[in-house]
Design goal:
The chain is α/β, with parallel strands linked by helices. It has helices spanning about 45-50, 75-80, 95-100, 115-125, 140-155, 170-185, 195-200, 220-225, 230-235, 245-249; strands spanning about 1-15, 15-30, 35-40, 60-65, 65-70, 80-85, 160, 190, 205-210, 215-220. A hairpin with a 2-residue loop joins β4 and β5 (about 65-70).
Length: about 250
Amino acid sequence: MVLEIKDLSQKYRNTLGETDALLNIEFSLHTGEILSILGPNGSGKSTLLKCIINILQHEGEVLIDGILVKSLKRKKIAKKIALLSQHNSSFFNFTVYERVKMGAYSSEISEEPSEKKVNEVLDMLDLSQFKNRPVNALSGGQFQRVLIAAALVQEAEVIMLDEPTNHLDIKYQLELIELLKSINKNKIIISVMHNIDLAMNLTDKMLVLNKGEIRFFGNSDELIKRNILNEVYETDIRAFTLKNMERWK
């Protein structure tokens, strides 16, 4: 599978007229790749995810295996792409089992997922012990696992996460990073990150946005070498990754 973003631009209206939220965004990802998106507040990170899943109108193209996402019906898009956020919390206090099973109803899965399939996903994400617990009674880390489980039942090929480590303590942050690494074999995973260290431990592939434009797309080693982060965040940033720790001593 290939996800291609071609010349994507998006504008928003304000009292001064139209402003570019995203401008000429282009990159591609393949099955098994994980992309971390970095950038200061207001740089267009969340907007980009919403354009990819076609929630926001935009110019340019988003294609999955050559198929234009704009041309697909909403349920077909849900079969291809899942967007997960802490804001995905339910207004109703479903149990973990019910919330995970609901993932299938977002897409064109022809049959209701079997109890066996839902339980397999719960086991995979170490959620079986919580299956009958209300989602509103979960910790932030547990709830993130529930959202990912729902996306796996949904059978989405692209899983996008908007600031998934926000409000999580370091234990759950690291657990989430390891979980994402473990499920990406047949998926493309895109994650908006604020924590630069966690982003670099999640993946080698990085996209840095600033003022709606791509400032960098490539691997973490090259990102560090080119000192892009200091320029984008306008401060002295030294990003430490587990694999680079020795080099920084």
